[in-house]
Every structure is written in C-alpha cells, then in structure tokens.
C-alpha cells in the first residue's frame, strides 16, 4: 500500500519518494526509465549510485518539474519514470524485415524530446509499415504514458529500440546493408531521392535538427520543398511525409 501512495494521482508511470525509488532500483525493475533528482547528499547520492549501477538515466530536475511529475504526491526530491512498454533491441528490429522478406525500413529519432512528437512518429510509422524506431538513451523522449497515448496504441505494435550510442548504432545498420538518410533543409529533394533499397530515415530534433555527429554518419541528406514563409515543419509531420514517400517508391501506395 505504501508504494501506491507514491504514484501520481492519475497515472502509474511515476514512482515518487526516496525509499520507493531505492527499492525499485534494488529490485532491478526492468522498465525503470529515468530518475529525476533535485539535490545531492545522503540517500539522494545513494540513488545516483544505484542508478549508475543499473544503467538508468539520471536527470537533475527543478522542484517544479518534480511537482509536475508527482501530481501532488510527496516526492522528497526524487521521482522515477517507468516505461509503459518494453524496449526492443536493434537486432529485433533488423529481424523483422528478414521475417517479412522485405527490405529494412527503420526510423531513427535523433533527440526528439517532445513525447507528443515521438508518439505521433510512432503512430505514422505503424501505419506506414516501418520495421521499428530507434531512439537515443539520453536527450530523448521515452516510452512514457504521453507517448503511448499520442501514438493511439501504435506503441504497442511498433518495436522501439533505445541505444546508448546512436552513432555506433548507425554503423551497425550500415554493416547490415542499410542506407541512412538524414532529413535537413540542405539536402536533395526528397522526391528525387531513391528510397527503394534498405533504408533508415533520421528525423532531427524539434529545435536543432540532426546533430553534427549523426549528420556525418548519414549517407544522404534529403529535404522537403518549402514555399511559404515558415522554413520548417513539425518533426512528426515531416517524418510522415518522408515515410509515405518511401512507401510510394516501393509501390505500396
């Protein structure tokens, strides 16, 4: 009963309070996603050490952020988010196209931090038949309740891999014969680019686009035509257009 009191009022995807978070770390809860901490010392340092041992992301947070996460519950300076689904491996995603007998079609989200955008991308990826989504472990939205809700249930069907090093992951994809396409205004026209082979689309963050390191890893850069006064689209909207161009070229639509 004590543990339930430390969950948010309207969702069970956050554990609040020092002792509940410590026990969750000690138990090796597999879906523990990230820990938000305000301060150092005492049991907060213990939590930081346990999180490091369990390879769980720690994020320094202001009191306002913790109040928001806790939904009014007593957080004692710490709250842990719990993923609403299990993460897949990159190998799992690669095996999907092999099982289907199709060329790999993967979406890479480079630091998409807005859970609404990530959820919308997952929803479109499911509709477009993508094999899976790859996200970085840090500086990215995770499989939280908002992502699941925004995906309209698609997050239950599209495998999402969460990797510690996105650049190294791209190297693995290339070793498996997959071409990597970055999306950026400096690229070639998307409808004049060949997507018929094995491909991975990289969608950059909402404010900064694709990071410099990941840009260097891309085989091609592609862009959408922009004829208005606004020079960019919402990340999830742009991702949807690119995904359906892949389908069009593959004769799926």
Strand content: 15-25%
User: Count of DSSP E strands?
Assistant: 10
Percent helix, as a range, is 25-40%
Q: Roughly what is the average pLDDT, rounded to an integer? A: 88
Morphology: elongated
Largest sheet: 6 strands, parallel
Give the strand order, joined by hyphens, for the main sheet.
7-6-5-9-8-10
Measured on Cα atoms, how large is the radius of gyration?
19 Å
Order of helices and strands: HEHEHEHEHEHEHEHEEHEH
- How far apart lie the N and C ends? 53 Å
Number of helices: 10
Low-confidence stretches: 1-11
> Which structural class is indicated by helix and strand composition?
alpha/beta
Task: Detail the topology: elements first, then pairings.
Elements: H1 2-5, E1 14-16, H2 18-26, E2 32-37, H3 42-53, E3 57-60, H4 63-70, E4 78-82, H5 90-100, E5 105-109, H6 115-128, E6 132-136, H7 145-150, E7 160-163, H8 166-175, E8 179-189, E9 199-203, H9 212-217, E10 220-223, H10 235-249
Parallel strand pairs: 2-3, 5-6, 5-9, 6-7, 8-9, 8-10
Antiparallel strand pairs: 1-4, 2-4
